[in-house]
Amino acid sequence: MRDQALFDKIDLHLIRVLHTVLTERSVSRAALKLGMYQPAVSAALKRLRELSGDPLLVRSGAGMVPTDAGLRMVDPSASILRAAEMLFSDARGFAPQTAATTFRVAAADYLDPQFLPLLISQVKAQAPHSQIEILPLSAASDYHAQLAQGAIDVVVGNWLKPPEELHQAKLFSDQIVCLVARDHPAVKRGWTAQSWLECEHIAPTPTHPGARGVIDEYLEGLGLARNITARCPHFGLLPRTVASSLLVLTTGRQFCERYASVLPVQILECPIPFPELVYYQLWHERTHQSAASRWLRDRVKQVAASLRAA
Questions:
Q1: What architecture does CATH give domain 176-275?
Q2: Residues near 254 by Cβ (< 8 Å), separated by ≥ 6?
Q3: pLDDT of 128-179, one tens digit each?
């Protein structure tokens, strides 16, 4: 009976305040994001503290940090808000011109550099009242958990074997090539598989501990390893690094071609025959039937198709 009485005191607005305060780690920033007056957020936080029996947010130096109990509430509160957003929007169907949905796409920046800007502009043009957030695929991210919890809607990237437990759709495939500076010795001399492996390579920082990426995963299967001497978490910076060094970047031709006309770089065939890079979008069963999510996946597919045709 006590649990039911406690549950009856919790409404969706309170959950939204909880999640915003915990993620912003500031009552004033939470108030600004929620469009509320700060005293109203403080009053809601007081209610939340009384309901949970925990301070939730405590001062640390000049700022605020969530307590352990508060940290445990971040993901469940996000999931509740996402589920509530889907509950009635899907029942009514999705009307992009009037919807006020927040779309969340996780993607690495090794995609065609035009992909994400085009996706954002298309979503905003067709669903002007909606928001779109682009989240990174980084060592700190767990896209499996984020998809399951509703923190993201779609993941876009390439995999040799995409995870079978997620829904997937192929977007396009691309040839693996090498990008080097125009004065790189291989431009004139060419290279063998062995000399390519021995060159100094630059590669992106792994998206999670132990991750190898499709290039090195494939090489490992052949019993080979390349000489990676530089890593960078920002893929978009790699072509400029290559242009001013003797480093070799191995990635998709479509990505490289975006820079070949604006930087002193050259595209070379890779002496090791790699399978094509295949780009997918992945999503979870929880959003498989969502009208809003289906609309977003269609936008992703259309943007990918327009780039492939360009």
A1: 3-Layer(aba) Sandwich (3.40)
A2: 112, 174, 307, 308
A3: 999 999 988 765 567 888 888 788 999 998 887 888 899 999 998 899 999 9
**Two tokens at 36?**
């509320």
Look-up of token digits 């957003």: 85
Closest CA to 23 of 68, 61, 71, 62: 71
Number of neighbours of residue 297 by Cβ within 10 angstroms: 19
DSSP reduced 3-state for 150: coil
CATH among 3.20.20.70, 1.10.10.10, 3.90.1300.10, 3.90.1150.10 for 2-73: 1.10.10.10
Identify the H or E element spanning 300: helix 291-309
Encode pLDDT of 215-240 as tens digits: 999 999 999 999 999 999 888 899 99
Q: Is the alpha carbon torsion for 31, 36, 39, 42 positive or negative?
A: negative
Dump strand ranges (E) for the chain.
57-60, 63-66, 102-107, 131-136, 154-158, 167-174, 176-181, 200-204, 227-232, 248-252, 265-269, 277-283
DSSP secondary structure string for all residues of 221-281: HTT---EEEEEES-GGGHHHHHHTSS-EEEEEHHHHHHHHTTSSEEEEE-SS-PPPEEEEE
Beta bridge partners of 59: 64
Whole-number Å distance between alpha carbons of 254 and 176? 9
Q: Tokens standing for 97?
A: 């011109």
